[in-house]
Amino acid sequence: MAEDIEEIRKKKLMELQKRYLEQQREQEEAMKKEMELEAQLDAIMRRVLTPEARERLGRVKLVKPELARQVQLVLVQLYQAGQITEPIDDAKLKRILAQIDERTRREYRIKW
């Protein structure tokens, strides 16, 4: 009987270890895909933006990561649609940032 309990414990431990390894593998794959996506986004941003505009977008990413991500996605869509014919400079990027920020801004009101 004690041997049966020990065997059940070993089987459970093996199952848990197997599940843990599978979860680790899935996390590694997800991280790898995320890194590939970031590399692709970075490559497109290098084609689409001037160095000054890329620098600004990097600073925005530190302060408002969701806004920066939305701008990146819009720029990727425009690039893939062939609507960006010349690199976007800092002034144009400022306008794009302002437009997207205005569209997505949420107002928070505190009532007493």
Structure description:
By secondary structure, the protein is mainly alpha-helical. It has four helices and no strands. It is elongated and about 75 Å long. Helix 1 packs across helix 3. The chain is 81% helix and 0% strand. It has one domain: PDCD5, DNA-binding domain (Helicase, Ruva Protein, domain 3, Orthogonal Bundle), CATH 1.10.8.
Features:
Helicase, Ruva Protein, domain 3, 112 residues, elongated
Shape: elongated
CATH architecture level-2 label: Orthogonal Bundle
The radius of gyration is 24 Å
Low confidence ranges: none
Count helical runs: 4
Indicate the mean pLDDT. 91
SS strand fraction: under 5%
Order of helices and strands: HHHH
Largest sheet: none
What is the CATH C-level name? Mainly Alpha
CATH topology: Helicase, Ruva Protein, domain 3
What's the name of the CATH homologous superfamily? PDCD5, DNA-binding domain
The strand count comes to: 0
* Cα-to-Cα separation, first versus last residue: 67 Å
Helix content: over 70%
**Class by SSE composition:** mainly alpha
The number of domains is 1
Gist of the model:
The protein is mostly helical and 112 residues long.
SSE inventory with pairings:
Blueprint: H1 2-48, H2 51-63, H3 65-80, H4 90-104
Helix pairs in contact: 1-3, 2-3, 2-4, 3-4
